[in-house]
Amino acid sequence: MSGPALADIRACLEGVIPAVLATCDAGGVPNVAYISQVFHVDDRHVALSFQFFNKTRQNILANPRATVLLIDPRTAGYFRLHIRYLRTESAGPLFERMAAQLAGIASHTGMEKVFRLLGSDVYEVEAIENVPGEPLPPPPARAGQLAALRLASERLARSTTLGDALNAVLATLNDALGMRHALILMHDEPGQRLYTVASSGYPTSGVGSEIRVGQGVIGVAARERTPVRIMHMTNAALYSQAMRSSFERDQPDLEPVTDIPYPGLAQPHSQMAVPILSAGRLLGVVFVESPQDLQFGYEDEDALVAIAGHLGATIDLLQSCAEAEPEPGTAVAPAGSRGATLQMRRFRANDSVFLDDQYLIKGVAGAILWKLASDHVQQGRTEFSNRELRLDPSLGLPDVTDNLEARLLLLQRRLQEHGPHLRIEKTGRGRFRLAVARPLALAEA
User: Fold this and answer.
1) Residue 102 has pLDDT above 80, yes or no
2) Pairing outcome for strands 65-71 and 19-24
3) What residues does the GAF domain cover (predicted)?
4) Which CATH superfamily is domain 6-131 in?
5) Of 108-117, 139-148, 180-189, 194-203, which range is least confident?
6) Are β-strands 270-278 and 383-385 bridged in parallel, bridged antiparallel, or unpaired?
7) Measured between alpha carbons, how far is 273 from 289 in angstroms, rounded to an integer?
């Protein structure tokens, strides 16, 4: 393929300026139309959004070759792509990525009721031409992306706990990449949901808030195992209001009081979610957003995918190290709990736990806390190990991917936010202590 490479003109594919598609019917009669989205698939392929069965669509099915005129929004330079239609995808990662971007473009242009993705038409790029003109000089190359990746790698390499690793990623996003609003969520595979374990840039942490797999930018990225990026604020329910709704509101059998508010921006204009993968398994999602349009481009996506990959490998490594620690002996709780009794109540239906009538946690993390508190009250124990939790069938941990460290971190942070009277403190690799400052009284419902 002659001319510039497709990777060199990715800025033209952000959907900032509509492209022009030229097709011909079987008799050679041309047709020209504006198109809202040309999507970068890889170094040799692009995808066009199929939204209507119109003249363009009829021509493509009759004659698979077409040209696309692109404009670089930074320089006003023109490029012409010679493309050949290969296939249409109506589901899967590519389709979902394009659907999310199209939702943002539609809302930005007031076309929410008109734009609806029916399919992703995949084309091979046979040639790229520089169209003669007088473009502006290109802006200076953005510096620091590679340095940011190095910083993230170094920080993750020094991490000895999951909390360290999550803090390392959030600090790098903020300090080195200017991504001020970020969330990290872990995957609960049996529950088909994601729960927040760390955040930065929000008034409240939102630790413990949940999003269903497949819901919103975060949920779609998790379900399809692919990055999802939106460059404009969208009014599409799938990517905005629905995402802000709690998981429980769709679960009529659960008490609404167990909702932990999602901490995201009220009106995000740019969003990007990248799955955390390791050995083909989904571990969670890294999510960033901004109140400004056009904040996250292809290079930001590249950087976040690399960081999420490092994080996934680090999580797996930390979990394997924790499992290698020998079983500690049980210990009797030291005397020292004093003051008013701390009331802990558990609801068996969903393992939700309340402290002094305030909701704290539910699900597997709630079951873990209840076991720790029960052992403390009945046996005076304060010292515990990850291994014994993994061997306890009453906790309902999955056999293969239990994410125990993530659930303990979630529990630890929820307790920190609740108050100083009940805490989880790490005492070594794979070991921790339940620190109880007030007498505990347990009740079940």
Assistant:
1) no
2) antiparallel
3) 161-325
4) Electron Transport, Fmn-binding Protein; Chain A (2.30.110.10)
5) 108-117
6) unpaired
7) 9
The sign one gets for the Cα dihedral 144, 196, 388, 316 is negative
Helix-then-strand count for the chain, H and E: 10, 20
| Average pLDDT over all residues of the chain | 86
Determine how β-strand 210-212 pairs with β-strand 228-230: unpaired
AA identity, residue 173: L
What share of the chain has pLDDT > 70, as a percent? 87
Cα 188 to Cα 211: distance, rounded to the nearest angstrom:
10
- Whole-prediction pTM value? 0.84
Among 7-16, 193-202, 325-334, which range has the highest average pLDDT?
A: 193-202
pLDDT at 103 over 80: no
Selected from 3.40.50.2000, 3.30.1490.100, 3.30.450.40, 3.40.50.1820, the CATH number assigned to the domain covering 145-251+258-322 reads 3.30.450.40
Q: Where are the domains of the chain?
A: 6-131, 145-251+258-322, 342-444
Residue 114 tokens, joined: 């008109």
